[in-house]
Amino acid sequence: MTKQQFIHVDADATVKPMPQTSDLVSGTIDGREVAVPWGTTLLEAAASIGTVIPTLCHHPALPPDGNCRLCLVEVDSRLAASCLFPLRRSGFSVSTESPKVFEARAFVLKLLLSRAPNDEYLKELAVKYEAAPDPRLGDLADGCVRCGRCVRACQATGTEAISLVGRSQERQVTGPFFEPPAQCVGCLACAKVCPTGYIVFSEERTSRSIWGRDFEMVLCPICGEPVGSLQELARAGAAEELCPACRRRAMASALVSGPGLSL
Amino acid sequence: MSTFDEQDLEQILRSRPAEPRQLLPLLQDIQARFRHLPKEALLATAERLSLPPARVFAAACFYRAFSLTPKGERLVAVCQGTACHLRGGQAVTESLEKRLGLKIGQTSADGRYGLESVNCLGACALAPVATVDGVVHGHLTPDAAAELI
Fold it and tell me: Do A160 and B42 touch (CB under 8 A)?
């Protein structure tokens, strides 16, 4: 095996310094002037002036993925996914509701509706954009729009028990080998970020089930309320844990009666 | 040989540095050795490269070059590209299916033959084409295709 050769290019002294995030870039969104820090995404820039762009796969706590295409807007007469589009130059001209955007979004909705025709949010948008599931696509309605929010949430926790597997229409969210994922800690992060409620779980005081696996719950030693699954807390490095309410109470009483916080 | 052998797997895994970027090369080596990616091998690869099994499994399912079930000893791939289709690729496909007693995507019960489709081999001037173990056969007729086996 030969070692791969890498070419190192020395920095050109005349190259402009990287813009600082404090530098502002300005342009217009739907004709309104906007100035935002360099690198702000178009979606964030629009939100900063109160312009709502519909999103589905976007979640503020997760890295953007741009796969649902609902947030398409027209930037200098080209379509771009606003959640992934960093503003790095002044003079941009963005239209979030042009006829081109309307048409593109209606098409995207048609595809998303084929997967999740009963989703309230999508149904609402479908009315606005006059979109309906396309019967030619066949019956794909399983409730999952393959946005991968669950996978990104699972990655963000460092677990990465599930992934999007396969291609085209066969693509699906699953554990390795289409089996209940052994790495899952039962934290429910995937289910909580799922925009369509496709990921189901059941929960009782002492147990929780998700992805075909059962988890034992850790109960608060003071009030007995469930705090989290055993594996989830072990992963977080907290085998025994008070529930949030009892922890606040314990901290408050320590502040009142003790010499000071020892936490 | 397509049977799983732990020592062979160990040898393959140790042939490359334990870095995440070696995932696809390792999967290619394993596919070449066992003609599929056994579950044990995927789990061992994940462990060796310190990658989550979910990511290894997703990679294994993404590429058509990889298979989770054993592929035939002799692989027959028939082109379904536009040029081949126009020049009788469908009849060639049917002839091969009949000759092998297999449908596209299937492997014979004894594991000797596998039949699959490819979307274009880039040999459109030779249409319709098929490959047997990577060797390209062009200008096929249904009869000529059956004689390849």
Answer: no
Query: Does residue A14 or residue A129 have the better pLDDT?
Result: A129
- Specify the CATH class of B74-147 in words: alpha beta
pLDDT of residue A7: 40
Are A60 and A127 in a shared domain?
A: yes
State ipTM: 0.80
Q: Residue length, chain B? A: 149
pLDDT tens digit sequence for B26-59: 999 999 999 999 999 999 999 999 999 999 999 9
At residue A219, the 3 state secondary structure works out as strand
Residues in chain B closer than 8 A to A166 (CB atoms): 61-62
Q: What's the Cα-to-Cα distance from A70 to each of A27, A202, B23, rounded to whole Å?
A: 22, 31, 33
Domain around A190: 149-257
Cβ contact, residue pair B53, A166, below 8 Å: no
Reading the block at residue A162, the tokens are 């599930």
**pLDDT tens sequence across A68-88:** 999 999 999 899 999 999 999
Considering the domain architecture, whether residues A186 and A229 belong to the same structural domain is answered as yes
Interface touch A176/B61, C-beta < 8 Å: no
Q: Where are the alpha helices (DSSP H) in chain A?
A: 42-48, 99-115, 120-129, 149-156, 189-193, 230-235, 244-257
Q: Is the CB of residue A242 less than 8 Å from the CB of residue A220?
A: yes
Q: Which pLDDT band, with edges at 50, 70 and 90, does B3 fall under?
A: low
